Amino acid sequence: MHPTPRKTTSSTPDNTEVGCTISKAIDAGPSAQPQFGEATPELCIVLKLPGDERDISARIGSTPNASTPPQREDAVLLLRTTTKADIDDVVEVAGLRLKVTAISQSYDSVGKLAYHVVQAVNCETSLEGTGGQ
Questions:
Q1: What pTM does this model have?
Q2: Which band of pLDDT confidence, cut at 50, 70 and 90, is reported for residue 71?
Q3: What is the Cα–Cα distance from 112 to 128, expressed in whole angstroms?
Q4: Which residues, 6 or more positions from 57, have their beta carbon under 8 angstroms from its beta carbon?
Q5: Residue 85 pLDDT > 50
Q6: How far is residue 92's CA from residue 88's CA, in Å, rounded to a whole number?
Q7: Is the pLDDT of residue 103 over 90?
Q8: Could you point out which of 6, 83, 111, 133 has its C-alpha 20 to 30 Å from the C-alpha of 34?
Q9: Secondary structure of the chain as H, E, C letters
Q10: CA-CA distance, 70 to 42, in Å (whole number)?
Q11: Using alpha carbons only, how large is the chain's radius of gyration in Å?
Q12: CA dihedral 81, 88, 70, 6 (to 10 degrees)
């Protein structure tokens, strides 16, 4: 069961939250296949999917800790401040399985944490046989 969707303060049709599932990565050691543990339903805003070339820089907001700008192959999601997502976790959204490669915080106009900006790429790893779905 996903949390209740809501519109963000800068509501546009593209800012509607949708359900996603975060599968936690478990360190399996250097030679083993990655393993995934608990799968948590969350809500996110999809700004960009892999292959989409539109400029989303204005929609990301203030992200002083952002590592690199999103590339064509990256997906960009906005997750709530309470997200459980971390680097190497897998986010399932819009029928895609995405591996998180970067997370940065985004702040509103008064300096309050607004959401987490997540960059992710297509994930080839299967979640079958693990805690994921």
A1: 0.73
A2: low
A3: 39
A4: 69
A5: yes
A6: 13
A7: yes
A8: 83
A9: CCCCCCECCCCCHHHECEEEEEEEEECCCCCCCCEEEEEEEEEEEEEECCCCCCCCHHHHCECCCCCCCCCCCCEEEEECCCCCCCCCCEEEECCEEEEEEEEEEEECCCCCEEEEEEEEEECCCCCCCCCCC
A10: 22
A11: 15
A12: -30
pLDDT at 8: 44
The answer to whether 100 and 24 are in contact (CB under 8 A) is no
Joined together, the tokens standing for residue 57 give: 């820089």
Check residues 51 and 68 and name the one with the higher pLDDT.
Answer: 51
Q: What pLDDT does residue 92 have?
A: 94
Residue pair 19/43 in contact (Cβ under 8 Å)? The answer is yes
Residue 17 has pLDDT above 80, yes or no: yes
Tell which CATH classification among 1.20.1250.20, 2.120.10.10, 2.40.10.370, 3.40.630.30 matches the domain 16-122.
Answer: 2.40.10.370
Structure token pair of residue 125:
């790893």
Residue the block writes with tokens 């790893």:
125
Question: What residue ranges do the domains of the chain occupy?
Answer: 16-122
